[in-house]
Amino acid sequence: MIKCLSTTPFNDQKPGTSGLRKKVRVFQQPHYAENFIQSVFDSLEGFEGKTLVLGGDGRFLNRDVIQIALKMAAANGFGRVLVGKGGILSTPAASHLIRSSGAFGGLVLSASHNPGGPDEDFGIKYNVSNGGPAPEKVTDTIHARTLSIDSYRILEAADVDIDTPGMSRLGEMTVEIVDPVAGYADLMESLFDFGAIRAMIAEGFTLSFDAMSAVTGPYAVEILEKRLGAPSGTVRNATPLPDFGHHHPDPNLVHARELYDRMMGEDAPDFGAASDGDGDRNLIIGRHSYVTPSDSLAVLAANAHLAPGYALGLKGIARSMPTSGAADRVAQRLGIPLYETPTGWKFFGNLLDAGMATICGEESAGTGSDHVREKDGIWAVLLWLNIMAVRRQGVAQILAEHWAAYGRNYYARHDYEGIADDKADALMAALRDKLAALPGTANSGGKIKSADDFAYTDPTDRSVSRNQGVRILFEDGSRMVFRLSGTGTEGATLRVYIERYVGSDGDLGMATADALEPLVRAAQEVADISGFTGMERPSVIT
Ligand code: VG1
Ligand code: CO
């Protein structure tokens, strides 16, 4: 029986950079998840009888919200829901499933790189029919609806068995429990030269992949160990756990420390990688050689033609504004356009759909291509492996040759976490007030050439997104960017992105911290970070 239950709005359901993310206990309030899901459905038109894809990264609440979403989809008139077995679907696999099944859209249950468990984070994201995150005009409509919602529809029924593959009925709707891995693994096999990678591994190339007890475990085991022949145990922390084994599934140098230490050790394997909670990020570390995500994007773009899926070359490259300019130099040399977008994968969708860009990336360890409409951690790992198999070189050598050819963009991001919201807002407001007066002045970083608040006009539909981050450019090409995170669930996080370019004839072998030191001081001078936040140093440097 379909029930129509009355409800009242929650005033905190504005989707952020990537969906709605809150503490689990916030989601556990009566009607909270239901309100948001109904607001999503109310914002869509024409889904009656159509297919919805549903799955998540396996974190705490995943299975409960899957049941709610199934019963609400049935009550709202979807014809079919495809659910990853056990409720599991990585974000890129969900994107692929939406595209390959011709679905109307999908709900991805994840708070991505945020920790999971009863006291940690949960999230819901809606993806549209191209497989990508809903664009801003859709998320704005959803948010508006959350503020006026007064009822939701849900089917009264027993829970669906989501652990047994096959079809069943839920009211008028079909539920299909599908293998979350196979279709995605086939897609990877169609893009990359698995034969060459398999041969490289058989010849003794060693690798280590840390799935961080999150969603990529089953995908990495199938692809790296089963299809590519890496020894079992190559994938560590391979079972998705509701609390990620108390780890923070963020593949950076702080949270993937174990992998980092292994890669810097005496008996380090040739190649190390990790992904995040929902499988869309990647960390790449060669033997004794860390790769910054911005450099990884540039190297992948410069060498993508070595993989069968990209043999015809790239149509364009897109990067988020805070991502370093390393990829720009590759685009220039390839003679293809470079697009600079606001932070968040939703801004790449139109460029990919229009065939304007083939490869996209963000400094936050996200890289991907037009094979899906999300960033894709395992895809990046496989493209690196394919490139190494063809070039017969290790990560360090590939990086060194890249810098020798293009110069090096020294780069770091400093995150100041857990700032009181009003203090973070005051810091940004003070910075914005200063912008007009900055050009022509000098500080520890050098002479400032320009300063603005980044605004983006989408070249395909002319939609405009403003206030996407304050950027300060120096005469020598160095750059600082300041913005507040849109994915946190507690207080505010200030992100400061620092970049300095050194040409191929300059010193390419500095330690990043040394190369950036004057700019780090300059960021402090311009934004008075310690004055506003009381923090003398960042919580995390990536
Ligand atoms: C962060 C990153 C951004 C990324 C987003 C979602 O956003 O900076 O580049 O797209 O997370 O990634 P913010 O607003 O906190 O800076 V994921 O892997 O958490 O979906
Ligand atoms: Co993620």
TrEMBL record:
Keywords: Isomerase, Magnesium, Metal-binding, Phosphoprotein. It catalyses: alpha-D-glucose 1-phosphate = alpha-D-glucose 6-phosphate. Its cofactor is Mg(2+). It comes from Sphingobium wenxiniae (strain DSM 21828 / CGMCC 1.7748 / JZ-1). Pfam families: PGM1_C_vert_fung, PGM_PMM_I, PGM_PMM_II, PGM_PMM_III. This is phosphoglucomutase (alpha-D-glucose-1,6-bisphosphate-dependent). Gene3D superfamilies: Alpha-D-Glucose-1,6-Bisphosphate, subunit A, domain 3, Alpha-D-phosphohexomutase, C-terminal domain. InterPro entries: A-D-PHexomutase_a/b/a-I (IPR005844), A-D-PHexomutase_a/b/a-I/II/III (IPR016055), A-D-PHexomutase_a/b/a-II (IPR005845), A-D-PHexomutase_a/b/a-III (IPR005846), A-D-PHexomutase_C_sf (IPR036900), A-D-PHexomutase_CS (IPR016066), Alpha-D-phosphohexomutase_SF (IPR005841), PGM (IPR045244). It comes from the Bacteria. Belongs to the phosphohexose mutase family. Signal peptide: none annotated. Residues 13-152, 184-285, 294-406 form the Alpha-D-phosphohexomutase alpha/beta/alpha domain. PROSITE patterns: PGM_PMM. GO terms for biological process: carbohydrate metabolic process. One of its GO terms (molecular function) is magnesium ion binding. Its EC number is 5.4.2.2. One of its GO terms (cellular component) is cytosol. The keyword Metal-binding applies. The keyword Cytoplasm does not apply.
